[in-house]
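--- STAGE predict ---
source: upstream dedup step, 1 unique chain passed
mode: sequence only
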Amino acid sequence: MHTVSDDKAIGVPLNQFLIGGAWAGLTAALINNIYSFIYTSITGFSASGAVNIFTVAIASFIPLMLAALVYYLLSYSTSKPTTYFIILSVILTMFSERLRVFAIYVYEYDVPVAFYGLILPMNFMAGAVAAIVIPLYIVRKGWKKRVKEQEHA
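--- STAGE serialize ---
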């Protein structure tokens, strides 16, 4: 029988959250760079000054490292950190897109529609990777930690 305290993220050390965030960041950077290459090849659209391999990698990696830190904080402050982290990841991904589009309209930036086609899917992909890869990595680490504790008990 599972109880609220059975969340496997509870008790996992910070370095494992950071490693999970790094794996997620690398995964998102790879997927987003592949998408960027395919999109620009098909459409011919290029935002080389703002969107290149380096900026896509950094914009994919750093937020997911921060997401891993949030997950770590949730693991020490709540009884269901994995559930809350996934919900928070989905909400923040949706909100960040709305905020970005809203800011472009409010400040009346002249942004080509193709730019949205380039960056919006990459943002959604990073959010999806955060919600899936980090918890999978952490839950696996939590499971291993508990098995070791049971063996030594």
